[in-house]
């Protein structure tokens, strides 16, 4: 455990791979969906803590492009939980001045979820506290290919000149164009992999992996991860 210092730099953007819901449930002899349901409480606590600490952006990996491979019953349960969460928590987002944004192929989600997400985004659009970015049907390789496709179309139309394409122009074509890159990437449940999450954007993020399963992740775990971040020396290739 690393002591967290509220007077030191707090990461402006924290991204979290919320993993381990299934194992949390299995350890208790419960169905996987109970793990996902319990994970919603962690989301609420982390949102509150990030707001209190002055974090400006929180990106949560909720459902990957590859998660469509899971059994239909689990997908249905996850989409049901998302609907329930949005219904209950949109007023909480308003009360806490949180703006909701989504990255990923929203149009692949069930209509009900799409509609609700669009409504919550519209209602919270004017909030200027924390920005909560939820990655849904999100895959980083797809995102990069989508950006490349958009740029090729622009090049063909003469809007973008391939000769002058640079990192900044490319990044403006990613789903995350409006957000800064994550400073801190946290993955729960001990897996040491990125699983197609923000491959471009995490180039210089500090990575913290915790053994805790997502449904057990609470404010002290977040503060530990921030403490670990504060102890790191970011060099960005310099000295
Ligand atoms: C993360 O938990 C939630 C999603 C991927 C939707 P998992 O469902 O991956 O849980 P484990 O990794 O099987 O324990
Ligand atoms: C990554 O977790 C996706 C989310 C947390 C939403 P997975 O559980 O899908 O990743 P893998 O399959 O272990 O790499
Ligand atoms: Mg997993």
Plain-language structure description:
This protein has 239 residues and is an alpha/beta fold. It is built from seven helices and six strands. It has one domain: Undecaprenyl pyrophosphate synthetase. The chain has helices at residues 21-27, 32-53, 72-95, 111-124, 140-156, 167-171, 219-231, and strands spanning 13-17, 57-64, 99-103, 131-138, 184-187, 206-209. The mean pLDDT is 97. The protein is globular, with a radius of gyration of 18 Å. It has a six-stranded parallel beta sheet, with helices on both faces. 35% of the residues are buried. It binds 3-methylbut-3-enyl trihydrogen diphosphate (IPE) (2 copies) and magnesium ion. One 3-methylbut-3-enyl trihydrogen diphosphate is lined by residues 17-19, 61-64, 67, 191, 193, 195.
CATH topology name, in short, is Undecaprenyl pyrophosphate synthetase
Tell me, what's the shape?
A: globular
Query: Which ligands are bound?
Result: 3-methylbut-3-enyl trihydrogen diphosphate, magnesium ion
Mean pLDDT: 97
Instruction: Please tell me the CATH architecture by its name.
Output: 3-Layer(aba) Sandwich
**Structural class category:** alpha/beta
Q: What's the number of domains?
A: 1
Kindly report the spatial arrangement of strands forming the biggest sheet: 3-4-2-1-5-6
């Amino acid at each position: 455990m690393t002591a967290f210092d509220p007077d030191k730099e707090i990461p402006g953007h924290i991204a979290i791979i919320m993993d381990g819901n299934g194992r949390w449930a299995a350890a208790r002899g419960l169905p996987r969906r109970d793990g996902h349901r319990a994970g919603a409480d962690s989301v609420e606590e982390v949102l509150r803590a990030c707001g209190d600490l002055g974090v400006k952006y929180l990106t949560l990996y909720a459902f990957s492009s590859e998660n469509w491979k899971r059994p239909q019953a689990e997908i249905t349960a996850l989409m049901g939980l998302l609907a329930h969460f949005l219904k209950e928590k949109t007023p909480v987002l308003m009360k806490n001045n949180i703006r909701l944004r989504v990255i990923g192929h929203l149009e692949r989600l069930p209509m009900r979820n799409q509609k609700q997400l669009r409504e919550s985004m519209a209602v919270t659009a004017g909030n200027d506290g924390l920005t909560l970015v939820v990655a849904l049907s999100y895959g980083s390789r797809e995102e990069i290919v989508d950006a490349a496709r958009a740029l090729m179309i622009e090049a063909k139309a003469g809007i973008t000149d391939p000769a002058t394409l640079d990192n900044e122009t490319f990044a403006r074509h990613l789903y995350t164009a409006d957000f800064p890159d994550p400073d801190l990437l946290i993955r729960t449940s001990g897996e040491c992999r990125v699983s197609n999450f923000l491959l471009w954007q995490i180039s210089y993020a500090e990575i913290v992996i915790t053994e805790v399963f997502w449904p057990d992740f609470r404010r002290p775990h977040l503060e530990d991860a921030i403490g670990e971040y504060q102890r790191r020396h970011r060099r960005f290739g310099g000295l």
